[in-house]
Amino acid sequence: MSEASSSSSAPSNEPVPFQGVREIPIAESDEAAECLALAFAVDEVAMYFVETNDTENWTAQEKWDMHVRIMRSIVKAHILKGLALTIGPNHDCVALWMPPGKNMDDKLTMFRSKMWMLNRKLSVEGQDRFKKEFLPLLHRTKEEVLGNLDNDSWYLVYIGTKPESRGKGYARRLIEHVTTQVSGML
Predict the structure, then answer these.
(1) Which of 29, 47, 51, 92 lies 20 to 30 Å from 66 when distance is taken between CA atoms?
(2) What CA–CA distance (Å, rounded) separates 114 from 102?
């Protein structure tokens, strides 16, 4: 053993080595949310709750902080009730899945994921867009598209890759991981 390798027991600042697809533990929910926030930073649908008429006086930082807060709640809800996966050394890509017959709208999950706090933090228009437009449209569209298979289907809610990590096949591998597992269950 060399002197350099045996003399240092301090943690390294080097990124965690690539370990393939893995579930996201609740302790890493903020890192996963940051990945999704970066991936959807310019996405009009993701920003629909933040870019409202009544937030025009918010600073860019306040809007970003709200966007990240939304992603944190969504990630936590999927860790608690669904399936949250990541790949890459630094949460480079994140996928949030909802298993058959489940959703994240129950009161306990809303409480534990802190989604209920969004009602206090979002602007009035942002709250209306989320509760009265987005969630009903999401549920209705899912039911219309999946029909009788709605309660028997896995649902990919979010998949996002950090801009600097795109083109490495991470998203494809996250999707293949779940579809392979689900195919094995059939």
Answers:
(1) 92
(2) 18
